[in-house]
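Lab notebook page, bench 4
Experiment: in silico fold of construct C2
Operator: M.H.
Input chain length: 404 residues
Purpose: comparison with the prior construct
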Amino acid sequence: MTQRIPSQGTTAARGAAGQDDRPPPARLAYDRHTWKEIAHLLANLPVALLGFTYVVTVFSTGLGLTVTVIGFPLLAAGLVGARQLGRLERARARALLGVRIEEPSRLRLRLRGGGGFFPRLWMQLKDPVGWRTALYEFVRLPWGVLTFTVTLVSLFVLWPVLPFIARGLTNADRAMVRGLLSPSDELERRIAELESDRGVVVDTAAADLRRIERDLHDGAQARLVNLAMGLGLAKEKVLEDPDAAAAMVEEAHGEVKLALQELRDLARGIHPAVLTDRGLDAALSSVASRCTVPVKVTVDLPERPAAAIEGIAYFTVSELLQNVSKHSRAKSASVDVWRTDTRLLIQVWDDGHGGASLDGGTGMKGLAERLDAVDGLFVLESPEGGPTTVTAELPWRDRSETAG
């Protein structure tokens, strides 16, 4: 089983790759590309008529009714419909012109956490994808009339050179589709992704705070309360029963040691001192020593990354090794950390029974979401029978970049 969570930066590469998908040069022959282009040009007029009619009808009505309570909701609904027209036009361009561009991000992502009807309505009215699609449908009518007429006439009059005419006209179509129907220089998509990731980070931080509060309340705090009560009783008995008081003080001393150990464990879960003082090599070696499986740790880093990246790497390995201890039934494991160009790479391997998945209740999905939120990468390979290999990537950021 191989499961992969891609980093956000890959979307731009996919979108750019689509723009290089161009048909071969036009020539004095009618191949399948030429016939597709001719079909596209002949369909321009009926498609443009439908789009123009929709835009003019819905938007003129909506604008005219803005003085009433239904005008703005009608405009918002018109923009949602325009998005669907844009989706159909992109599909037509893919099928007939070979233009492969990314679909714009869904509107619901930008409305994450919206507070009621009017904020959501305002966000819909500001939708740049809907407005650009409406502009596209509005300007297409004269272009549709021109391309339909020229193509139809050329079929009977300029047959030998029609492939070149069709290529020139459809290149203008390709430019319009890419200019008005593609994501806005990837910025619109990136904003939506970052807003979604921000929600993941906030939820994770809130969960961590609740865990720390619970651990303090149920662990060290309760133990310190018992310690205070025990010392109070010992104080009362110190004169009338010194031996009993001494025994109670001895018991309290043991409670102090346990409370200190719990506080150390809690502090290690927040940010271990060994990571701050000595870096990933020493910190991961400390984590590996507490694993129930023998772990070989290899860290090959020329320098230390930013503290935030170090922390994410540390807690990623910590949780993965906890999974090895609890679920893998492995006999050995390894942790490798190294740098490649601008990425910090982590690989955790074990020879257990495999079968791990992102939705298997082992926290893998949460790890993947945390890495994804910082432009990271998470790849899980865990076939039934093992072994399990988890590869994680994080952006490398020097400490000097974050010091200021």
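Observations: The longest helix spans residues 187-237. The mean pLDDT is 79.
Next step: discuss at group meeting.
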